[in-house]
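Researcher: Batch entry, complex prediction.
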Amino acid sequence: DIQMTQSPSSLSASVGDRVTITCRASQDIRDHLVWYQQKPGKAPKRLVYTASRLQSGVPSRFSGSGSGTEFTLTISGLQPEDFATYYCLQHNVFPWTFGQGTKVDIK
Amino acid sequence: QVQLQESGPRLVKSSETLSLTCTVSGGSIDTYYWTWIRQPPGKGLEWIGNVFYTGSTNYNPSLKSRVTISIATSKSQFSLKVTSVSAADTAMYYCARLLPSTMTTDYWGQGTLITVSS
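Model: Structure tokens for the complex:
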């Protein structure tokens, strides 16, 4: 199975901060990576797909980059509604695997 | 607006079979892939498997041979069965639709918490 190592596991940040979350794949997954945002009690919401394509309706402060084995989700100017847990998912090879999640909370 | 709704018994006894159905409304079940994903309380997400509208499936080997996903296009439903459940199968179970062009999810069900009791 492909291991998705997500870092950090948690971070504290302030409104307006720039936040970067990283996912590393244990082997090349091309650009078959999705970033999700999950709030408590809710289903995950797709933010970015194909590593860097922003889902329609998602604010432009979110951006994704990377290919191969290293990927980044950046939030440029954190807003109160962005405090949540973020997951990456590789869908290049079965079984699809998620990163362990990054919880972003208020400093 | 496409909507997905999970249904099935919320409490399952250890060693028995978990059965869930996802009903799709507001759109066709045809031409899409459909998926099940679960999340144990306080933990991360785990992909269970996919089914295409033709009935073709892919499963997570971590669940070994305990999982079966099927589809009933005439009913706009797809289903999940997990046999020989244990406490480790206690989780929120989500169904979702996959776009064939990107093989990524767009619509999700709200999720249903399944508890395995001893």
